[in-house]
């Protein structure tokens, strides 16, 4: 199984953990290419106006993985500390 991880948002903080976890499960990990104009453009096209730019770029990274993987790994991390929340 090939699982894609978009190169955005929490990717830079947790990629090593996620990659190790998935590889230990026998999964082939595929990451999106570095941000570029095409990725940003796809994020702007497919993202709604109200979301922030980093999320739009993240959507562009997810789009870049379409057709190259069996699934996307997009963990939802709500909080790192008590009474603090991530958007």
UniProtKB/TrEMBL annotation:
Q: Where is the DUF2229 domain?
A: 2-87
Query: What is the phylogenetic placement of the source species in the record?
Result: Bacteria, Pseudomonadati, Atribacterota, Atribacteria, Atribacterales
Q: Which InterPro entries match?
A: CoA_activase_DUF2229 (IPR018709), Dehydratase_Activator_Redct (IPR051805)
Annotated source species:
Candidatus Caldatribacterium californiense
- Protein name from the UniProt record: DUF2229 domain-containing protein
**Pfam families per record:** DUF2229
Q: Which domain of life is it from?
A: Bacteria
